[in-house]
Amino acid sequence: MTTATQPRGRARTADHPLATRSERLRRATRWWPALLLAVLCTVPYSALPLPGLLDGPIGGPGNLQLLALCLLFGGLATGYDLLLGRTGLLSFGHALYFAAGTYVTNTVMLEAGLPFAVSALLGLLAGVVLSALLGAVSLRAGGIGFSMVTLAFAQAASILVQRDPGGVTGGEEGRAAPAGGLPASLVGIEHTANLYWIALAYLVVVLAVVQWTVRSPIGRVWEGIKENERRVEVLGLRPYGFKLVAFVLAGTLAALGGIVYLLLTGGATPQTTTSDFTLSLLVMVVLGGSGTRWGPMAGGILYTWADHRLGDLAGSGAVAGLPAVVRVPLSQPLFLLGALFVAVIYLLPGGVARLPARLRAARASRAATDREEVLTS
Predict the structure, then answer these.
(1) Could you read off the pLDDT of 101-160 as tens digits, one per residue?
(2) Residue 235 phi/psi, 5° resolution?
(3) Distance (Å, whole) CA 98 – CA 260
(4) What CA–CA distance (Å, rounded) separates 82 from 215?
(5) Whether 105 contacts 176, CB under 8 Å
(6) Residue 213 contacts by C-beta under 8 Å, 6 or more apart in sequence?
(7) Cβ atoms of residues 42 and 258 within 8 Å
(8) What sign does the dihedral 45-31-300-262 (CA atoms) show?
(9) What's the CA gap between 41 and 67, in Å, rounded?
(10) How far apart are CA 349 and CA 291, in angstroms?
(11) How much is the pLDDT for 13?
(12) Which of 183, 205, 300, 366 has its CA 20 to 30 A from that of 355?
């Protein structure tokens, strides 16, 4: 006499309906990046208002400008995470390569009179060469020494820009991009949507490059370097070369972002050369979740939006009417931004990107507790 047996996997699924629901939910949300991209593509054509988040319709020029900056810094933070979250390198000089793309492109257009396409190519090349040269020197030091060397290079470049040698950088005021040197389709309020498309394309390119490299063999070596560099050496690999590749790639993506920033803001400013700019990138990555696929992007978008919107809140009439003991700290945008950052770090360890996993774990724990109560009753 034979006994029909049920397949183990099917029995396990039947015994655990929660696992089935979780798997279905995972399959349903697998395509959310494509859905989000489709939504972002419709933004310039939307007249939908978002009270409290944006002023006026989403597709208005001012909101498109803000959203383009959010997308730009989402991509920039994702590129920076190649160093911090993927390779374990804490660089305080990442702003230098972003500024190289901005200043070299702008200076070539102003001084040499070359068209934007050629100037942008030279600006990108400057970012590649500069990151290769400075990375080759910085990576000779390890740990905190590496961080200090990158900071020293960035500070030297910032001082050089502010002293305006030969009048090419504009000093503390910066220099506006020549309107005649930019494509006509990228100049003027009526063409803000085109700038939005460029920022969105930059974000997509950065995400694609980072995801491809992380999944490649070199990405697995980066992961090994982050976990235990000595073990990578024992396997016969040279960590220095792999770290240099990550450094140059991150610097190249930053220089490309600097070119996009030049288009969005219409000029080069010394604020992009300071160490504070790199610290902002560090906050973005930590806020979103270092070493995750979507965390740095989310952190960059959230930080940039909060930086602009909290500034408006600090100068609003609602804050001005409060008692002095409350009004004074709330009138400082950096205080509000810092409070938000501390709250997110305290309430969401691991960044915003860890929130879905934490919610799933809490739901699974609650369901397991309910099952135990049912079985014991």
Answers:
(1) 999 999 999 999 899 999 999 999 999 999 999 999 999 998 899 999 999 999 999 999
(2) -75, 0
(3) 10
(4) 12
(5) no
(6) 82, 219, 249
(7) no
(8) negative
(9) 12
(10) 13
(11) 44
(12) 205
Beta bridge mates, 57: 49
Q: What is the pLDDT of residue 315?
A: 64
**Average pLDDT of the chain to the nearest whole number:** 85
CB atoms within 10 A of CB 13: 13
Tokens (6 digits) for 267: 């000029």
Alpha-carbon gap, residue 170 to 196, rounded angstroms = 27
pTM above 0.90, yes or no: no
DSSP track, 137-150: HHTTS-THHHHHHH
Answer whether 302's CB lies under 8 Å from 288's CB. Answer: yes
Residue with tokens 């992009």: 272
Instruction: Summarize the chain as % helix, strand, coil (round to 5).
Output: 80, 0, 20
Q: Identify residue 12 by its one-letter amino acid code.
A: R
Residues 6+ apart with CB under 8 A from 278: 91, 92, 93, 94, 95, 154
Has residue 199 got a pLDDT over 80?
A: yes
Does residue 169 register a pLDDT over 70?
A: yes
Rg (CA), the chain: 24
User: What single DSSP character describes residue 176?
Assistant: E
> What are the pLDDT digits (tens) for 215-272?
999 999 999 999 988 999 988 899 999 999 999 999 999 999 999 999 999 999 999 9
